[in-house]
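Usage

Read records sequentially. Each one opens with the input sequence:
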Amino acid sequence: MNTITDKKLLMLKPSELKVLENQPRKTFDEYELKLLADSIAVNGIIQPLSVRKSLDGKYEIIAGERRYRAALMVGLRRIPCILHKVDRQTVAVYSIVENLQRSDLSVFEEAEALEKLNTVYGMSQSETAAKLGIAQSTLSNKLRLLKLEKPLRERIEKARLTERHARALLRIEPSLRSQTLDYIIANGLTVSQTEEYVETVINPKIKKEVTEPVRKYAIGDVRLFYNSLSKLVDTLQNAGVDAKTRKFENDKYIEYKVRIKKEQMNSNKCKQLKICQS
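and closes with the structure output:
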């Protein structure tokens, strides 16, 4: 088998290139693609694409499809490429490795690419794991993700959930997965919260409360509190209670003070407003 080290530099026309048929990456962020195109317009392509000669005379892109798409947007006439003399199996492995190193693949794109190495190129799981430099158990866990129904996979990707979120869903019987995923997404559960919730779905007898997500209060909440406090003071004053409020503010704190005379605390008016002392 030829190796990826058998290579040379070429300057190819965009029309001479074509996308790898079994490219593992399926989606491209349009905003990030535009940013890359702007960079290429100014600096050119710093890292050449990796290609191999195909039977039809064109050059298949092994790695660098994103750079290729951005180059088309810019209108480059020539694109720097490294020609590799490798077979299709090596191309598939290298393409996956390149995307994994860049963290470009989604959870399920990665799993589908790994499965193709087994089904299309006839590699065993042990061979695949060895070539990618990962444990066979890790590979098996990634392949198991494909047992999730496709609509669920799409929703998991859209919600930007992690591989561990997806693996937790695998523990649930298929009929309960969709509604469980609804709850996970609606409540923004973390991985640990998801695993706790899945336990209650699997065994409803376990009355284990899932930790509620911590709410981050915005400055608008502080204003709401101050407005509510001001309305309370207005209510007291309208009822004839001599209530006064003052606001103090420095670099570190905002402090509110409400002052009511002690003799008024047990007045009938305070009792009516339910603020009297017990």
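Summary fields computed downstream for this record:
- The first helix runs from residue 30 to 43.
- Strands lie at 7-12, 17-19, 49-53, 59-63, 79-84, 243-249, 254-260.
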